[in-house]
Design brief:
Layout: E1 5-6, E2 18-21, E3 24-27, E4 33-34, H1 39-46, E5 53-55, E6 63-67, E7 70-73, E8 78-79, E9 82-83, H2 86-91, H3 97-105, H4 120-128, H5 130-145, H6 154-157, H7 159-168, H8 171-191, E10 205-208, H9 213-222, E11 228-229, E12 234-240, E13 243-248, E14 251-255, E15 258-260, H10 264-270, H11 276-283, E16 287-298, E17 310-312, E18 321-326, H12 327-330, E19 339-347, H13 359-374, E20 387-398, H14 404-416, E21 421-423, H15 433-458
Parallel strand pairs: 1-11, 6-17, 15-21
Antiparallel strand pairs: 2-3, 4-10, 5-10, 6-7, 8-9, 12-13, 13-14, 16-19, 16-20, 17-18, 18-19
Helix pairs in contact: 1-15, 4-5, 7-8, 10-11
The structure holds flavin-adenine dinucleotide.
Length: 459
């Protein structure tokens, strides 16, 4: 099949970008993907990277939440934001007594009478109170979407919880029932000899030994260099008989079909003259921006970091950081011995203005906040990082706002009416890398199938 890949930047990969500095893997964008979604690992294997896949170091997986400037570990038994273990929930310092009582009473929560979408914050607050939104839902979701629980759609982001509420009323009862079913299915599979009892349990995250950039490089190596146009933004798409005219670099070229894998706001601009309503719907999908700040320290500069992968910062703490990962702990073998990599995540929907700050101001803010949060003994303010790196990701993360499902369906309907067009990317059906890959492949398969049907009809 003949194809051309137009990319406005001078490199492939979009948000995926990493570099190796003094043998340490430094990720500018995503650092891994969810292991339970197979599309990314499958593609890695297909492009010859199977041996490079490494699991997260889940033996030390522990995440903290900052509460009144103290790091409090997430209690054991938390599933999808839902506390399912009595004793850890009763003992945790994460919640006040009032919230703990509310969590116990949640077992009596009736099913919601309405089918209408609502925000994640509304769903969680109705069940567990405002403190659970502030200390749990908001920081966990801003770590994933750079978003705001008060804006994100519960039906899209937490569909399992919405289903559980309609069946059980109580999310805790729903989660316990789901857990029970899963265990029964696993023990049945084991007794039928189909279980995975002998294989290692899957870890939460998977990454590539040499950084996520390996993925981009391996795919690029399999593409025909003559088919790639880097630094070539598409400026317009035009529907013509039997296909599409793609305008780029002052020329217009004819193609039978087009997959638009740009952010939705960019796709909207390109489709303005073809379908103004579709363009408007695409343009109305909100996006958030984010910043990552990587700091590499020599161990001699630091005291003992808390155990675990890192911490999340609720908005109520009024910090510029949303989260910090202890990178050298999360994935083993990607940081040389004697070094520590701390990666802070900033920005999000509530802090877009931060993007205009200089690199040195951002690094200074992160160093000050880390020192205040971890303590002067662990990270003295004067501890000089050996290397710092700031990356800005403008309007890179789609936000699945309340009503996203209806918007998605309406977009899909309008796209179906435009033969030879498909959309892919994080704006539609999953924000993570595996979902973006799944959608891209699906788009390609559908177009190939449609092309084959058309050529059979002609012959
Ligand atoms: C800081 C950060 C951390 C993340 N962490 C994780 C993580 O750990 N795990 C995970 O699974 N996901 C993570 N994500 C999310 C995930 O990386 C993204 O959702 C995903 O990579 C987006 O892929 P995409 O193809 O939709 O968009 P992009 O990667 O944004 O690619 C879109 C491409 O379209 C190009 N383009 C735009 N307009 C045009 C035009 N007119 N003509 C030609 N080209 C154009 C852009 O230059 C860009 O290369 C993270 C995202 C960010 C920003």
């Amino acid at each position: 099949m003949e194809y051309t890949l137009f990319e406005s930047r001078d490199r492939l990969g979009g948000s995926i970008s990493s570099e190796i500095v003094n043998s340490a893997v430094i990720e500018r964008g995503p650092d891994s993907f969810l292991s339970e979604k197979p599309a990314a690992a499958e593609l890695c294997r297909e492009v010859g990277l199977g041996a490079e896949l490494i699991p997260s170091n889940d033996a030390v997986r522990k995440t903290y939440i900052l509460v009144h400037n103290r790091l409090v570990a997430l209690p054991d038994g938390l599933m999808f934001l839902i506390p399912t273990k009595l004793i850890p929930t009763a003992l945790t310092r994460l919640f006040s007594l009032t919230t703990k009582v509310r969590m116990a009473l949640e077992l009596l929560h009736p099913p919601r009478p309405s089918e209408e979408d609502e925000s994640v914050a509304a769903l969680v607050e109705r069940h567990f109170g405002a403190e659970a939104v502030d200390r749990l839902a908001d920081p966990l979701l801003s770590g994933i979407y750079g978003g705001d629980a008060a804006q994100l759609s519960a039906r899209t982001v937490l569909p399992k919880l919405v289903e559980m509420e309609s069946e059980y009323g109580s999310l805790t009862l729903g989660m316990l029932a789901a857990h029970r079913k899963m265990r029964q299915a696993m023990s049945k599979a084991r007794s039928n000899g189909k279980g995975q009892s002998s294989s290692k349990p899957r870890t939460i995250f998977t990454t590539l030994r040499g950084g996520m950039q390996q993925f981009v490089d391996a795919i690029e190596a399999r593409l025909d260099p003559k088919s790639m146009r880097l630094g070539t933004p598409v400026s317009k798409l035009e529907k013509v008989d039997e296909g599409w005219m793609v305008h780029a670099d002052g020329q217009a070229e004819f193609y039978d079909a087009v997959i638009l894998a740009t952010p939705a706001w960019a796709a909207g601009v390109l489709l303005e003259r073809t379908d103004a309503k579709l363009a408007e719907e695409l343009g109305s999908i909100p996006y958030s921006s984010s910043i990552t700040v990587n700091l590499v320290f020599d161990d001699s500069q630091l005291g003992r970091l808390p155990d675990g992968f890192g911490f999340l910062v609720p908005a109520s703490e009024r910090r510029c950081m949303l989260a910090c990962t202890f990178v050298h702990r999360k994935f083993l073998g990607r940081t040389p011995p004697g070094k520590a990599v701390l990666r802070a995540f900033l920005g999000g929907t509530k802090n877009e203005a931060m993007l205009t700050e200089s690199d040195s101001a951002l690094v200074a803010s992160v160093r000050r906040e880390l020192s205040e949060i971890l303590g002067e003994k662990v990270l003295p303010l004067e501890a000089e990082p050996e290397y710092t790196q700031v990356s800005r990701w403008r309007r890179a993360m789609a936000q699945y706002a309340v009503g996203h499902q209806e918007r998605k369906q309406s977009i899909a309907k309008r796209v179906t009416a435009l033969p030879g067009l498909r959309l892919a990317g994080n704006a539609y059906d999953g924000i993570g890398i595996p979902d973006c890959i799944r959608l891209g492949r699906q788009a390609a398969k559908e177009l190939v199938a449609a092309g084959e049907t058309a050529s059979q009809q002609v012959s």
